[in-house]
Specification:
The structure is a single chain. With 226 residues, the protein is an alpha+beta fold. Helices cover 33% and strands 32% of the residues. It has helices spanning 11-22, 35-38, 51-65, 68-74, 183-202, 207-223; strands at residues 3-5, 27-28, 41-42, 44-45, 76-79, 83-88, 92-96, 101-103, 110-112, 115-120, 127-129, 132-136, 139-143, 150-154, 158-161, 164-178. The strands form three sheets. Strands 1, 2, 4, 5, 6, 10, 11, 14 and 16 form a nine-stranded antiparallel sheet that branches. The protein has a five-stranded antiparallel sheet with strand order 3-7-15-12-13. Strands 8-9 form a two-stranded antiparallel sheet. A hairpin with a 6-residue loop joins strand 8 and strand 9 (110-112). Helix 1 (11-22) packs antiparallel against helix 3 (51-65) and helix 5 (183-202) runs antiparallel to helix 6 (207-223). The radius of gyration is 18 Å and the shape is globular. The two termini are 21 Å apart.
Length: 226
């Protein structure tokens, strides 16, 4: 499932994050890439333990905890702390698949990367190129969203970032371990939850609401690994 989640950050939060990022010290983005990815990766990144990365990362996680669309789609169990990247001057990230497991620095915690997320921090008209291109069984999808909007997609997908030929592309990328590791099962639960919410709004007293809610939770109980 590939899902766009709007307004994870408000314009004010985007502005605050941009101000903080403008003061940060960027390093070669290959410091967090795996062996294969490092050959395709050409960008700048904040170190994982940089104070600015931690501060904006906490803002992102707090916003996602209040976002019902994200919770319903991701069913998050663990979240790898958000990373921050910058592309400019022709920089790009060639085709790659994200590492299956990520180690959270200084914590001893591992995160299985079921889902990848990219939160855009620059508007599309601020740069040329820089599309996130994701390949799945339904084809190739090019994603370039307004600042503050996020895309969520299976981490198993082959994907790339096209060269940025003008301006600067700023974004946060991170990974999630879901309670439901299988993308097909997770998508069925999301579709069912969405249908229940719509039925609740239209026919709140209909007995099917309770029945379908029971089906949802019994499927989640069957598929969840916590």
């Amino acid at each position: 499932m590939l899902l766009q989640i709007p307004d994870v950050f408000s314009p004010e939060q985007v502005s605050q994050a941009r101000d903080l990022l403008s003061t940060a010290d960027w390093v070669d983005g290959r410091v967090t890439a795996g062996h294969q990815s490092s050959r395709a990766k050409d960008n700048l990144q904040l170190p994982e333990d940089h104070p600015v990365a931690r501060r904006i990362g906490e803002m992102i996680l707090a916003s996602l905890q209040r976002n019902p669309l994200f919770i319903s789609a991701a069913l998050p169990l663990r979240v790898f702390p958000p990373l921050f990247n910058c592309y400019e001057g022709g920089q790009s990230f060639g085709n790659h698949v994200d590492n299956a497991v990520r180690q959270v620095k200084h914590s001893g915690m591992s995160v299985r990367t079921d889902l990848s997320a990219t939160l855009f921090l620059a508007d599309p008209d601020e740069y040329e190129g820089g599309e996130l291109v994701i390949e799945d069984t339904y084809g190739v999808h090019s994603v370039k969203l307004p600042a503050g909007h996020m895309v969520l997609y299976p981490a198993s997908s082959l994907h790339n970032v096209t060269p940025v030929t003008r301006g600067t592309r700023l974004a946060s990328s991170f990974w999630l371990q879901s309670m439901v590791r299988d993308d097909g099962e997770r998508t069925l639960l999301f579709d069912l939850d969405t249908a229940i919410q719509r039925l609740t709004l239209d026919l709140p007293d209909h007995p099917a609401v309770v029945q379908l809610t029971a089906v949802y939770h019994n499927l989640l109980r069957r598929w969840a690994h916590v």
